[in-house]
Give the backbone structure.
Amino acid sequence: MNNAAEELGNAAANWWTAVLNGFTRAEVPSVSPLFLLAIMAVAVALSIPRASWRWFGLYVTFVHELGHAFAALMTGRFIHGLKIGLDHSGQLVSSGRRGFSATWSGFWGYPAPAVVGLALVWSVSAGWAGAAASVGALVLLFALIFLRNFTGIMVALVSAAIAQCLVMFATAETVGYVVLALGIALGVGSIRDFFKVAAVHTRRRNQLASSDAYILARSTGAPSWLWLSGFAVVIAGSAACSAYFAWGLLAL
């Protein structure tokens, strides 16, 4: 019993040391144009084909809902729970003051994957990919507190397990490449999700009740197109900045 507890304690200490080591600035990787194209191809392969999007889209939805949750916590709202469906639907239940806090939380869903993707790509360009991986590992574990359904818990557990393995066992160079690919993939996934919600407002209006833009329009009185435009501006700006930082990694 004592040996098991000691081994568990040693494992936890080793994990924490690995997390802290991630906050050491590493050398910025320099990649060839061909290698960067390969990384982009991997990112696109995760976000575009239906077969891979069926699973990676769950992670994008998870980040979407975490965007709502983080924005809610920023304005003092209380998080009651978070759910993710196999159909890529998501639901965050929070309470607090109406008005700005509810609107702020409601906005930061669709843009969240693009913003997180930008942060990941920037972290690689600045030599902080390890820090990004460590922060991600901690956030994914913390997020388990809020999950309220089986699918959501499984998505969080798998994501957290991958993040922990990356932090514990991968070399700094590998971490940089994985974080870069994930950042680009989240950006592509965010663009895909934006076109999906835009289609709801143009061709599949029977699904309007599930649209963040429609919910924001009903709660604020501002038209849906204004909220969609806001999503588009943040997503496009994040994608452009991500491309700029990725281009800076090229060994020309």
